[in-house]
Amino acid sequence: MVRSDARENRARILAAAREAFAEDSTTSMNQVAQRAGVGAGTLYRNFPTREALVLAVYQDEVTRIVGTVPDLLAATSPLEALRHWTIDLVEAMRRKHGLGDALSPGAHQAISEQSYGPVIAAITQILDAGKKDGSIRTDADPGDFLQLTGALWRAASSPEDRAPRMLALILDGLRAQPRR
To answer: Which one, of 118, 120, 135, lies nearest residue 81 by Cα?
Structure first.
């Protein structure tokens, strides 16, 4: 059982780290602690290394993104939910790749292994909703979709972000075709 103040400290540290790393991938642990309003001891008790903190930020981000699926499906069509959800995922992956130099190859592997299952489950949920209402092809595969979208977070984001146009092409390919 974790005390409420300890949970709040952890949440503040993760939020501060997410913001700090987005601004500057070389942010130090001490800068994160200051930004979160906690002491170095509290930071290191929760995250003994910088790599542990970065991994926790990624995992927290994946959990947040995956958790948006039910609300998106309740508010929009499956294709629109998939578009919004994928743009959110692309932004998170771009941030992840921005910190790539700070992580060991083992940490990159851990991120991929920890996030793959929940991400595939989220995509499956959206695709299944679209298959059920007839808006998404019945042969749409979550693994294929994830692999295709890998190109989106590697696409040039300046001077113009190409990801939304590329995603529109992918989504057009997922649309169910009228029966002839």
So the answer is: 135
Query: Tokens standing for 156?
Result: 């040039």
Cα separation, 39 vs 66, in Å, equals: 31
Inter-residue contact 110 to 148 (CB < 8 Å): no
How far apart are the C-alpha atoms of 139 and 137, rounded to whole Å?
5
Contacts of 99-103 with CB under 8 Å at 24 or more apart are 99/21, 99/25, 99/54, 101/25, 102/25, 102/26, 102/50, 102/51, 102/54, 103/51, 103/54, 103/55
The DSSP code for 26 is T
User: Given a cut of 80, is residue 96 above it in pLDDT?
Assistant: no
pLDDT of residue 179: 65
The β-bridge partners of 136 are: 175
Which pLDDT does position 37 carry in this prediction? 95
Q: Around 90, how many Cα atoms within 13 Å sit in the side-chain half-sphere? A: 25
Please list, residue by residue across 81-109, b when 16 or more beta carbons sit within 10 angstroms of its beta carbon and e when fewer do: bbbbbbbebbbbbbbbeebeeebeeebee
Cα(43)–Cα(86) distance, integer angstroms: 32
